[in-house]
């Protein structure tokens, strides 16, 4: 029912992080991080304008799609925009049978701007995403349901790598995201259940200069506030407000053959639950507070240029959500 709220053509690259570095992204990420890197806020100044326009189709579901990705630079300013539009009918399975209510329509766009002097970068971006898709059904006797998903996102970034002190550079990231999700009965247009999540985030990190020539690392603080609400016949949980505050550190000692990593994160999560009645069950108002510590060690040894041995050990705590 809950599809990924992103499109596959927007990433510039994807990196996989495992071990202590994953704690930079939260205590939830103990198993690793799939980091999708985009150019929403550009990190370079292109010479003039360049980009690409793609179009394609598929026969299995009569899909069409078109997307564009453009970069423009002038002096110390860089601009980036992308757009995508994708639509499809019901698809056919491996036996050649039509899968009912499996159509989809997706559209989105993004604008980003950055000022990039010699000492750093600052920029903002705005992203809009819309996805409407059916939940497949077995036959025409079932009631077809579609999902209408909307997401708006704002990002702000300031960073510098020319501090020339014990702290070599810093990065400040601020974000706001508004996600909405409606489950709609297609035959009547009636909205069965609606979900909403508003998120405010803040991340400030500092990289220090190498210590003893081979110890590099990052320290930082993170804050997030979320407002979660659900209404309708499948509102099985109360609404909730979340607040999280964390401090983290990541250090790396690297030599020609050995790479040792250490990460730690202390995090305080609060959940504020209003009184409500859901599915004939009364939930009294309540506040929850969780203070947790997560730590991770990583070690790798290069036997040759092509063969390495590595090991990670970690312990983490994830604060529960209202669901």
Keyword list:
mainly beta; two-stranded antiparallel sheet; 64% strand; 13-stranded antiparallel β-sheet
Question: Secondary-structure blueprint of this entry?
Answer:
Elements: E1 13-17, E2 33-37, E3 48-58, E4 63-74, E5 77-88, E6 104-115, E7 120-134, E8 145-160, E9 167-185, E10 191-211, E11 215-232, E12 240-254, E13 258-273, E14 276-278, E15 281-283, E16 286-302, E17 308-315
Antiparallel strand pairs: 1-2, 3-4, 4-5, 5-6, 6-7, 7-8, 8-9, 9-10, 10-11, 11-12, 12-13, 13-16, 14-15, 16-17
Written account of the structure:
- The chain is mainly beta and 323 residues long.
- Helix content is 0%, strand content 64%.
- The chain is built from no helices and 17 strands.
- It has strands at residues 13-17, 33-37, 48-58, 63-74, 77-88, 104-115, 120-134, 145-160, 167-185, 191-211, 215-232, 240-254, 258-273, 276-278, 281-283, 286-302, 308-315.
- A 13-stranded antiparallel sheet has the order 3-4-5-6-7-8-9-10-11-12-13-16-17, with no helix packed on it. It has a two-stranded antiparallel sheet with strand order 1-2. A two-stranded antiparallel ribbon has the order 14-15.
- The radius of gyration is 23 Å and the shape is globular.
- The mean pLDDT is 92.
Can you tell me the overall shape?
globular
Q: Tell me the fraction of residues in β-strands, as a range.
A: over 45%
Contiguous runs where pLDDT drops below 50 for at least 5 residues: none
Sketch the topology as an H/E string, one letter per element: EEEEEEEEEEEEEEEEE
* Physical arrangement of strands within the biggest beta sheet: 3-4-5-6-7-8-9-10-11-12-13-16-17
Mean pLDDT: 92
What percent of the residues sit in helical stretches (DSSP H or I)? under 10%
**SS field, number of helical segments:** 0
Question: Structural class from helices and strands?
Answer: mainly beta
Main β-sheet: number of strands, strand sense, barrel status? Answer: 13 strands, antiparallel
Total strands: 17
Over all CA atoms, what is the radius of gyration? 23 Å
């Amino acid at each position: 029912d809950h599809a990924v709220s992103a499109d596959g053509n927007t990433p510039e690259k994807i990196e996989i992080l495992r071990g202590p570095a994953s704690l930079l992204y939260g205590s939830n990420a103990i198993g690793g991080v799939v980091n999708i890197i985009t150019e929403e806020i550009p990190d370079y100044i292109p010479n003039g304008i360049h980009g690409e326009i793609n179009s394609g189709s598929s026969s299995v579901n009569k899909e069409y799609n078109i997307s564009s990705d453009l970069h423009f630079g002038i002096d110390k300013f860089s601009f980036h925009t992308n757009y995508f539009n994708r639509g499809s009918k019901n698809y056919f399975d491996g036996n050649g049978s039509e899968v009912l209510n499996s159509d989809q329509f997706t559209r989105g766009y993004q604008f980003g701007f950055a000022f990039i002097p010699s000492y750093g970068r600052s920029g903002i971006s705005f992203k809009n995403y819309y996805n409407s898709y059916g939940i497949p059904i077995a036959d025409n006797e079932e009631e077809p349901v579609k999902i209408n998903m909307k997401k708006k996102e704002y990002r702000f970034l300031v960073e510098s790598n020319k501090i020339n002190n014990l702290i070599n550079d810093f990065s400040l990231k601020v974000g706001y995201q508004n996600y909405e999700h409606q489950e709609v009965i297609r035959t009547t247009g009636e909205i069965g259940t609606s979900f909403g999540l508003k998120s405010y985030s803040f991340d400030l990190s500092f990289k220090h200069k190498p210590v003893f020539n081979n110890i590099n690392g990052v320290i930082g603080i993170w804050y997030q506030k979320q407002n979660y609400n659900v209404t309708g016949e499948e509102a099985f949980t109360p609404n909730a407000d979340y607040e999280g505050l964390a401090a983290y550190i990541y250090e790396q000692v690297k030599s020609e053959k050995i790479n040792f990593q250490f990460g730690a994160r202390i995090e305080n999560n609060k959940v504020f639950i209003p009184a409500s009645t859901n599915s004939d069950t009364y939930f009294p108002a309540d506040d929850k507070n969780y203070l947790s510590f997560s730590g991770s060690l990583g070690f790798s040894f290069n036997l040759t240029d092509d063969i390495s041995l590595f090991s990670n050990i970690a312990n983490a705590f994830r604060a529960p959500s209202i669901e």
